[in-house]
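Thread amino acids onto this structure.
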């Protein structure tokens, strides 16, 4: 507790949610509202080998690494890849970097990591990665993609229909905060109307 000019301040160490909304960014980040559900929809666990693309500012990377995964990140922009690495080091420390392998490359050209447990996508045309993901994911493995537009989600679902995938589903997460003060108990007037759609599916054995 500090007192400055008669006002008392209490400082708390930032949580991961605090950090991702305040950290330096190149690309637009995925917000905590969607990061939390993405971890469970993709069933991320310690030791999982996860291909992530694009890496952007590293918000999703941070969540995946925090959950114990080993992350192979494909990002076409070198400046974004460097920013993501710095953000990971700043929040999770150097230990996490040993589980964070970023390559500056185009994910549409293919994936060269074997034995993947999960594929997590946040790029404009995720359906172009679906065939590559099918070739590298272990049977039962999961793919998840974040898409701001529902047209992207439907195109992605069509590509999942064509391949060795099952249990495809798309969800949207709405988060509504409440005003609670004495007798005044009601939803807040404003909420974030839209971020993105989360589409996930499981790799069938062939
Ligand atoms: N999920 C990230 C934000 C990703 S923004 C976060 O939470 O911080 C989308 C990123 O995808 C951008 O950085 C962009 O450079 C990258 N990208 C777009 N197309 C790509 C491709 N074909 N291969 C690899 N990265 C790509």
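Threaded sequence (206 positions):
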């Amino acid at each position: 507790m500090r007192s400055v000019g008669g006002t008392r301040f209490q400082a708390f160490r930032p949580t991961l949610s605090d950090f991702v909304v305040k950290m330096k960014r190149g690309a637009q980040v995925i917000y905590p509202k969607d990061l939390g559900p993405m971890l469970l929809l993709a069933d991320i666990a310690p030791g999982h080998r996860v291909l992530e693309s694009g890496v952007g500012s590293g918000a999703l990377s941070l969540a995946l690494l925090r959950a114990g995964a080993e992350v192979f990140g494909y990002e076409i922009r070198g400046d974004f890849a460097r920013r993501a690495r710095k953000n990971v080091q700043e929040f999770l420390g150097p230990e996490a970097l040993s589980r964070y392998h970023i390559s500056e490359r185009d994910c549409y050209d293919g994936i060269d990591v074997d034995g993947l447990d999960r594929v997590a996508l946040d790029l404009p045309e995720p359906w172009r990665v679906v065939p590559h993901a099918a070739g590298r994911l272990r049977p039962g493995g999961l793919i998840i993609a974040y898409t701001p537009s529902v047209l992207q989600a439907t195109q992605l679902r069509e590509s999942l229909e064509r391949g060795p995938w099952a249990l495809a589903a798309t969800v949207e997460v709405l988060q509504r905060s409440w005003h609670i003060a004495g007798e005044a108990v009601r939803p807040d007037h404003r909420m974030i109307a839209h971020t993105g759609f989360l589409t996930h599916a499981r790799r069938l054995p062939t």
